[in-house]
TrEMBL record:
<dbReference type="GO" id="GO:0006606">
    <property type="term" value="P:protein import into nucleus"/>
</dbReference>
<dbReference type="InterPro" id="IPR016024">
    <property type="entry name" value="ARM-type_fold"/>
</dbReference>
<dbReference type="InterPro" id="IPR011989">
    <property type="entry name" value="ARM-like"/>
</dbReference>
<keyword id="KW-0813">Transport</keyword>
<dbReference type="GO" id="GO:0005635">
    <property type="term" value="C:nuclear envelope"/>
</dbReference>
<dbReference type="GO" id="GO:0005829">
    <property type="term" value="C:cytosol"/>
</dbReference>
<dbReference type="InterPro" id="IPR058669">
    <property type="entry name" value="TPR_IPO7/11-like"/>
</dbReference>
<feature type="domain" description="Importin N-terminal">
    <location>
        <begin position="29"/>
        <end position="104"/>
    </location>
</feature>
<dbReference type="InterPro" id="IPR001494">
    <property type="entry name" value="Importin-beta_N"/>
</dbReference>
<protein>
    <recommendedName>
        <fullName>Importin N-terminal domain-containing protein</fullName>
    </recommendedName>
</protein>
<dbReference type="Pfam" id="PF03810">
    <property type="entry name" value="IBN_N"/>
</dbReference>
<dbReference type="GO" id="GO:0031267">
    <property type="term" value="F:small GTPase binding"/>
</dbReference>
<comment type="similarity">
    <text>Belongs to the importin beta family.</text>
</comment>
<keyword id="KW-0539">Nucleus</keyword>
<dbReference type="Pfam" id="PF25758">
    <property type="entry name" value="TPR_IPO11"/>
</dbReference>
Amino acid sequence: MALSASDLGTIYSFLTNSMSGDESVRKPAEAALSQFESRPGFCCCLMEVITAADLASQVDVRLLASVYFKNSINRYWRNRRDSAAISSEEKNHLRQKLLLHLREENDKIAGLLAVLISKIARLDYPREWGFGVLGRGVGVEQDAVPFKQWENIVYCNSVSLFVILVITNLLSMKAYEIILMNLRPELFSVLANKLQLADVLTSHRIFLTLFRTLKELSTKRLTVDQRNYAEITSHLFGYSWGLWQSDVQTILNSFSTLAQSYTSNALEQRHDELYLMNSSFQKGHPKFWDFIKRACTKLMKVLVTIQGRHPYSFGDKSVLPPVMDFCLNKITDPDPYILSFEQFLIQCMVMVKSVLECKEYKLNLTGRVMDESVITVEQMKKNISNAVGGVLTSLLPSDRIIHLCNVLIRRYFVLTASDLEELYQNPESFHHEQDMVQWTEKLRPCAEALYIVLFENHSQLLGPVVVSILQEAMNACPTSVTEITPGLLLKDAAFGAAAYVYYELSNYLSFKDWFNGALSLELSNDHPNMCVIHRKVALILGQWVSEIKADTKRAVYCSLIRLLQDKNLSVKLAACRSLCLHVEDANFSEQDFVDLLPICFDSCFKLVEEVQEFDSKVQVLNLISVLIGHVHEIIPFANKLVQFFQKVWEEASGESLLQIQLLIALRNFVVELGYQSPTCYNVLLPILRGGIDINSPDILNLLEDGMLVSFLCLVSMYCLPYAAFSKLIIANLTGMTLQLWEATLSHAPAMEPRLQAFFPCLAEILERSFDHLQVAVNIMEDYIILGGIEFLRMHASSVAKVLDLIVGNVNDRGLLSTLPVIDILVQCFPAEVPPLISSTLQKLIMICLSGRDDFEPSKAAVKASAAAILARILVMNTNYLAQLTAEPSLSLLLQQADIPIEENVLLCLVDIWLDKIDNASSDQKRTFGLALSIILTLRLPQVMDKLDQILSVCTSVILGANDDLTEEESSGDNMSSSKFHGEGTIPSREYRKRQIKFSDPIKQWSLENSVRENLQTCATLHGESFNSAISRMHPAAFAQLKQALKMQ
């Protein structure tokens, strides 16, 4: 039943009660709202609450109504089969209502209204909420606002700030061909028309709405959506650009008027007075000052965006040199107020870094065709690149590069007082903030990123400079110093500078001498203040891993283990990460590390208990997983690891990403235990069961909590919609669990009853997605090999369901991974399996008889493999294939698929076997040959028409079999050798698989004898027709047949 205006009071009371601190009041209100949200008219009621004039003071209620409105858009705006959508009439009403209330005075409500419009535009633009061309009457001039009316100018300038945001969004898309379409002129035309008569507040709200809407539309990636966005750009960019120019000119003129009140001499005399005035201005007008900072930062971001999107245009001599010079000056010689303006400095560094690493600005040394009269686009680009290269050389002479390097290390790398306080008070957070934060978010990581690019571009110039700074810092602060002095902080900064550019710096600095002469000595000082240096030593030992020679590895391993036992958590976590790098290194020396394993594991177990943050636990678990995967002496620690895994899994309830990391560690653990893995089944199997049962409460909670943990991070990073994000989480969880399941089966000495019971879950997983088909196919193969006939008896229906799900619903690659498993099933159970999977076999017949595959190798391979399975069934269960090909249901399927059949289906398969012999493997060719030899025994006159081809194929297979004999004998010898060496031990999965392969009856039966005997039967059945067909054979072909059958 639809909600109406009479329900408005009820909705309002429920919204009010849902914010109550009393749970007995809040819970029923939330439940009632949850029931109301799917009813027609709910969003209209919410809209009335949001825009009601008499509720202007009830900001919290209006905000909550906005949130419910936004959630309803996500859930019910789009038409779905599984939920009731909002009606078209209600949508039209809401769209019009939103545009009528753009002039919202409350900033928070205005922001949410802009978000609501953007969410609707994402779904309805352009079909339901189209684009109208901006009228020419829309002006860009605005009345000047008195400069002293600070509160008004803040709003005025906020408009300019959002214009900048709009421009940034318009620039974020590359240029596409503009396709003008007849679109309904509603959304953008209404906004444009309102701008003509708008006051400052309305202009601010309109541009806020434009910004949110453009940002939302820019994340759509389909070609048609990008073309739509290009059309918006063509209409809005020029207008926004002109408006922004006008506003900025007004602001600059006002500042110019203020500056002209002082003469140049007066400015010099009253410099201190102006500085004091500037400081007092900041305190007296913080809102306006905050706007200036945000506007300057956004301007720099716009420049960075333009440089990234249009590097050649940005490389013009009137643009690049002044921008680069300005940024370099602000970095190396900042004014006092700039030093506290971190975000602006960060953008200056981002700009310099982007220019330095821009591949379009690298000198192009390729030549040009002689006497080429036409200058191509590529030649123009090369000319610009060479010109920009010269400009950069003049902007960055050697002395300026060295000065920039010194400033970055000595000023921006040095820890501040707040950094030191964080290091001592909250070392865990300090570690993650320093090493895992996005480099564009904090000043020090940004400076480090700029330094790395600068060093890579000028390593020969800066190598000796960095070494000299390092030597100076170590000499000025010996290892005995324990106080936090400027010298110690400079040494920390110099150590960091040496760590970040290890590859290039190794030409100027011997790690062995540095380690023995300085780094190892730093660890001898256990004073608490030395955690600053110890943390950086741990970083160096990890970064320089590729430069550490064999004679130093043991000492480095011992140092990292010692750092793993440090008193400061940031040092321990840094050592943990560096140990991972060493263990994963291709030159890792297990011999030098193995006796350190006990203390390493114990330290990791203690560290997991010490740390509190999620990222820390994941980092330690990763080290344990890496140790298990790379060090083979794991068996002595099996009991401790089992206890550890059980404890961590219980404590990790509700932390999906941590559980994913634990699944990876468990998989490595099972692989290393091998056939001793049943010792951990009491812990492993309950975890595995909870992960593969997609309907269990455990996996549902795991998915829900994983989304809550990572939603904001991933959605903001990849612009993923909620549904796509949910699918990503499910895919990751399913993939990790399936890999653990596969490893458990592969290393099981025998089929465990609890493992046997898991198989039906595979069908449920595949019903949802084929994302991990290859792993699922491997699991099914493991069950066949390990479980044998008992497995088939217990799960026959599930086997049939899985194969029926796959065949016909996956692409050629998926089929090629699945068909070998069907072949093994038929080989192992020739009597039981074919009737069980009749539906799948009918699909294989359709694959064989449908379409041409002359130019598609993958389809030809699929058809050959499917035909080989059907040929095997004919050889091993002849009567069943004859029955299957004669079933009316198959004929009906072929008719529905428009596959013409002019004769017996079985004879059509004979044509496929004859045609695909060249696409088949040696084993498949042998199967085709045996199947064709059986065809000779049929009482069908059409067989005589194909006799020549059948005998030619059989002859080629028999004569060609000798070429494969040597390989098979060699493989057989290897198998025998494996069996001999493995006597008394549990056979491996691969050995079992080879055993099945070499016990294949197809390999045991003689094709030569089969053809000889069946040829005699054929002669008896067909008499003169047979003799006539034989006489038509080419003499050379008949001679080869006699040779193959050893006939005199």
